[in-house]
Write a structure and sequence with these properties.
Layout (H helix, E strand, L loop, with lengths): L1 E12 L2 E13 L4 E5 L6 H8 L7 E6 L2 E2 L5 H11 E5 L10 H11 L4 H14 L15 H13 L5 E5 L7 H18 L2 E5 L3 H4 L4 E6 L2 E6 L1
Parallel strand pairs: 3-8, 3-9, 6-7, 7-8
Antiparallel strand pairs: 1-2, 1-4, 4-5, 9-10
Length: 224
């Protein structure tokens, strides 16, 4: 599903190259659950953004679902990630001016899905996550755990094949965090969604089938 070959990304500081990622090779098969760990500044979020096509890279090749991402124009890349990828962020990234219902619906509007179908899909998601009673509330009226559930519902509504999660429990208490991780595990095992998460937590990482450790922009080691 994902094949990164010799991926490097750098910034120029005072005429010198500072590598954010250096010679990263990574193969992720469909239906895997991969955790990425490493100290702050090791390149975890950068790697996730490259996989999610939010960040470009300077060297290397990236193949996703048999498409050569490094050869695609920006518009083609954008269409590819909208079709296949759902994002879950630590800071939720919900739109404060939109209700829970409208936040979940947003990706479907970008996909040009008809109103009646959108309504059915959003209702399904509200039901699945037990947030029907919250549909008319705004994000600021929700707890952190509820906001993250809405974020996950929004990520899932387009039926992505891949979910990218950046510290998905970072702002939650331990019970809420556990519920979110169990939800990811269920999505992976029952729905066959491929998941790649960035986490600082050994416990969260253990939900995955493989742990990749980054250090200074390189893959330091892998554990199964």
């Amino acid at each position: 599903m994902i094949d990164l070959k010799h991926i490097s990304k750098w910034i120029n500081v005072g005429g010198a190259r500072v590598f954010l990622l250096k010679d990263v090779n990574l193969l992720v098969k469909e239906k895997e659950f991969v955790s990425i760990m490493g100290p702050s500044g090791s390149g975890k979020s950068t790697l996730l953004n490259v996989i999610g096509m939010l960040d470009e890279f300077d060297e290397g090749e990236y193949n996703f679902m048999h498409e050569s991402v490094h050869k695609l124009k920006e518009k083609q890349r954008s269409a590819l990630y909208k079709q296949y990828i759902g994002f879950v962020f630590q800071a939720y990234h919900l739109i404060d001016e939109l209700t829970v219902y409208e936040n979940i619906e947003t990706p479907l509007i970008y996909q040009d899905i008809k109103g009646s179908e959108r309504k059915a899909l959003v209702s399904d998601m509200l039901d699945r996550f037990n947030i029907v009673g919250k549909k008319d509330l705004f994000p600021t009226q929700l707890s952190g755990g509820q906001q993250q559930l809405v974020g996950i519902a929004r990520a899932l509504i387009g039926k992505p094949k891949l979910i990218l999660a950046d510290e998905p429990t970072g702002n939650l208490n331990s019970k809420q965090g556990e519920e979110i991780m169990e939800l990811f595990q269920m999505l992976n095992q029952q729905d066959g969604v491929t998941i790649i998460q960035v986490t600082h937590s050994e416990k969260n990482a253990s939900y995955g089938s493989r742990v990749i450790h980054l250090l200074d922009g390189r893959i330091d080691k892998e554990e199964n």
